[in-house]
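Protocol step 4 of 6: record predicted structures for both targets in the notebook before any analysis. Target 1:
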Amino acid sequence: MSDEPIRVLYDEQIFLLQEFGGISRYFTELIKYYEANPELGISPVLASGHVINKYLQNETKSLGVKGIQSKLVAVIYLFLRMALKRQSKNKVDIVHHTFYLPGFFGRFKGALKAVTLFDMIPENTDSRGRFWNPHFAKKGNIFNADLVLSISESSTQDMLKEYDFERRVVTTYLGVGSEYSPNLSRFDWQPEQYLLFVGNRGGYKDFDLAIRAFATIAKNNTGIKLQLVGGGNIKGFEMRLAAQLGVGEALIHRSVKPEELPNVYSNAIALVYPSRYEGFGLPLVEAMASGIPILASDTPINNEIASGCASYFPAGSEIALGNLMSQAIIDPESFQDKIEEGKKRALHFTWHRCAEKTAAEYRKLVNERGERVR
């Protein structure tokens, strides 16, 4: 193989769609790791330096990133890029597509293509039939890619059930940073005692179940809050449901900076994770690394990632979730064995493992299929 580094271009899709979020976190961590470890022989390149993503703006060093401050401008820019199908001027060995929007895969002709399977959420939830579905081009991307990565075995198996796909799929689990750890300091704005819900709350996330379960234990546990982080401000219907159940004042929300999130985890009574479907579930590994109990729905992906380190309840059961919430408040010591195992298990989910395995697959692809750029 040539001694020259493999040039991998990351397209702009996810960096114009997400200010924060798990997918953009994943790609930013890959880029950061390759920047910091040139001995791996991977040279990251951006299709566009104009991004709205805060991770990329704040955490990469040498890629000439220019922040877009307006979500509207980012969306306009995204659709223009999608419609114009403009070729990149960079000569690269591999293009790693960051999402599945129509119009992007046909660009960058002559380069090998890598695609990551994140989940099969539209295919496994009620969002399949929506008029606009950002996963519309996913199947075509996967079938036409030279390299298919997946963030979990569960996502791969769900994809294989849906598609007649017989090629190799490589699992590269996501990671958790060393900043997540137990016993971190508490910010002044944090409640004294709270159960934690992280991220988006719509549909299959079953947030309404979390409210209902919380309401079953709230009367006997006054002062406990249900702390929401990310996912946007509390919606009117969410507050109306909480008020109807008598827990409106206990429902609180905060948008936190990435550097504050480890402290939020570390001081929580437990992570509440009722989602019926995920592609990976970053909050699971963040909670394990933070040394707090995990109250999770009993689903294949949650079992794959958290294994025996979480306390599971049947998906959709507010009574079972409420019982676990009550146990976490009243008898936290009963979770200690799972917490200790979780801290050990979290060590297997690191960004450097993800980046190094991905780099090995890039090299294998170029060696087997590629003709290096000059």
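Target 2:
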Amino acid sequence: MTPSALDPRGHGADVIAQLWWVLLALCTLVALITLAALVYAALRPRPNWQRPTAEQDRGPTRAIVYAGIVGPVIILAGLFVYVLSALGALSVPADSPYSIVVTGYQWWWDVRYRFPNQADGFRTANELRIPVGRRVRVDLESFDVIHSFWVPQLHGKIDLIPGRKNEIWLQANEPGVYRGQCAEFCGLQHTRMAFHVVALEPAEFDAWLMQQRRPAPEPRTAAEQHGRVTYESHGCAICHAIQGTTSRGIVAPDLTHVASRMYLAAGTIPTTRGHMAGWISDPQHVKPGVNMPRVPLDPDELNNLVTWLLTLR
């Protein structure tokens, strides 16, 4: 099911949806009144032409003044006040126990969790997890071109502009998975630049935070050990990072807990063994134009690499 801004599941989306319905009702009312006036003017009897007296001329003049000036001024003034109150409700909170920094790339999302006065933040990709019922600040940046961050069921959309920082906040009223999308055309794979916001109960979210702060587990089997060697010897570590290893790349998604994510390639394919193997062996087939090169691996190397990556939870 396609996510809809008219199916709000968070406070910000509630405010926007309510504003939309108010504007729709008001515009519909004005359109109906205007249509009724046109129908009346077209169908009313036309008397023989004669110049109206001053007394007869006052009625139409009053109608023009009230319907064309006074009425619109009152309606627009009230609407202005209402919109200002809605904008106030959508303002970003000044304080937060942590913040999320989202950077848009062609065509994926880098996600960094930062904590005040702490150096143990972490990175993930294409997936944000937030606690239910809490406002979470999201700082937005772009690495290359203009992107647009939009989670229709949680909040409005906002652009990521190179060289400028924007901000928004997210709050989910109930647990669930909410799809987000880049809403600004940004290149060949714009439509496959999705992300997901996973809203968890606070206790479950805290447990997830602790898990994400841990480094990648050490290989336990021979296949996993060979998989790690394959990763380190075929250039993967140049672009990707895995905490707990010497891999410190920053231009591609952090893979420390890649197996815990629901999707690969920014929402393009699910995180399963077959899809992961296909993505590594031929990324251009899955997502044409992506910056990830094809990695030449024999079947045993590919199998071992996928085996090891699937332990990174």
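Step 5 preliminary note on target 2. The domain at 1-46+92-213 is CATH 2.60.40.420 (Immunoglobulin-like). The chain has two domains: 1-46+92-213, 222-309.
Proceed to step 6 after PI sign-off.
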